[in-house]
Design brief:
Strand content: 5-15%
Number of domains: 1
CATH superfamily: NAD(P)-binding Rossmann-like Domain
Helix content: 25-40%
Distance between the termini: 32 Å
Largest sheet: 7 strands, parallel
Number of strands: 7
Radius of gyration: 17 Å
Strand order of the largest sheet: 3-2-1-4-5-6-7
CATH class: Alpha Beta
Number of helices: 7
Shape: globular
Mean pLDDT: 96
CATH topology: Rossmann fold
Bound molecules: NADP nicotinamide-adenine-dinucleotide phosphate
Length: 251
């Protein structure tokens, strides 16, 4: 595989499992040194880092709670201190609190508030911490959701809104950082068979896949490949964009 990202350093939040681990793997296969974060899965994160190093790149797993915005600057500082630079930031970590309508008396407002902290405030804090130090020509990619554009079913109001919020932030950041040729984009996956989807798939309406042009889940590799393209040298004029990888859910 072409080492298009050789010499680059990437930080991927939530790289211990699911899509984040796939993104870390794909970027490492293209030659990038990779830092991943986790909050609970120390052993899984360590195993991902070992697998990345086996691909011949440097790797580091860092425990950093994205639900605490004050942890963002220490995280970025640790990446710079360890690797000497930061070129690619992928804001991947998120929570999905879904399944109850907002008028349900049983709705868990504390969990929904935590989702806003992780999915929005944490992403904002990480972009703010990275922006001054990421290299000129760098890449910032946030992982949104097809639900950020088209909600499609009930019970996911706050999650969908959190994903819509990071689109607006990416567009603003693209304007702010464009003079340094730093691109800022959002990739919106469709449903993938990760732990996150395992927690919500049974809450999806049975007809949900009928709303897709391609009636299956995405693979994490399909989404990671698009993120790697945006992280790479051929995507330098692509910024402020929202890229759907959702089987036509928003078509
Ligand atoms: N799965 C889907 O169907 C789907 C669809 C559309 C969009 N997405 C988006 O794709 C991205 C990845 O989702 P996924 O399905 O891979 O999720 P996942 O399987 O639930 O993995 C979540 C990752 O985020 C980390 N994380 C969670 N809370 C964190 C926190 N407070 N601080 C730091 N890290 C934290 C987890 O770390 P630990 O292992 O330590 O908990 C884990 O590495 C998310 O942005 C999600 O919204 C997913």
């Amino acid at each position: 595989m072409s080492k298009r990202l050789a010499g680059k350093v990437a930080l991927i939040t939530g790289g211990s499992r699911g899509l984040g681990a796939a993104i870390a793997t794909t970027l490492a296969e293209q030659g990038a040194d990779v830092a991943i974060t986790y909050v609970a899965s120390a052993q899984k994160a360590a195993a991902v880092a070992v697998a990345l190093e086996a691909k011949g790149v440097r790797a580091l797993a860092i425990r950093s709670d994205q639900g605490d915005p004050s942890s963002a600057k220490p995280l970025v500082d640790q990446v710079i201190s360890h690797f000497g630079r930061l070129d690619i930031l992928v804001n991947n970590a998120a929570l999905a609190i879904q399944g109850k309508r907002i008028d349900d008396p049983q709705i868990d407002n504390a969990a929904l508030d935590q989702q806003w902290r992780v999915n929005v405030l944490g992403v904002v804090a990480t972009i703010r911490a990275a922006a001054p130090v990421i290299t000129d020509g760098g890449r910032i990619i946030s992982v949104g959701s097809g639900l950020g554009t088209r909600v499609g079913f009930a019970g996911t109001t706050d999650y969908a809104a959190s994903k819509a919020a990071i689109v607006g932030y990416a567009k603003g950041a693209a304007r702010d950082l464009g003079p340094r040729n730093i691109t800022v984009n959002v990739v919106q996956p469709g449903v993938m068979a990760t732990d996150m989807a395992a927690g919500s798939a049974d809450k999806l309406p049975p007809s949900f896949m009928d709303t897709h042009a391609i009636g299956r889940f995405a693979t994490v590799e399909e989404v990671a490949a698009v993120i790697a393209f945006i992280a790479g040298p051929d995507a330098g004029y692509m910024t402020g964009s929202v890229v759907d990888v959702n089987g036509g859910f928003t078509a």
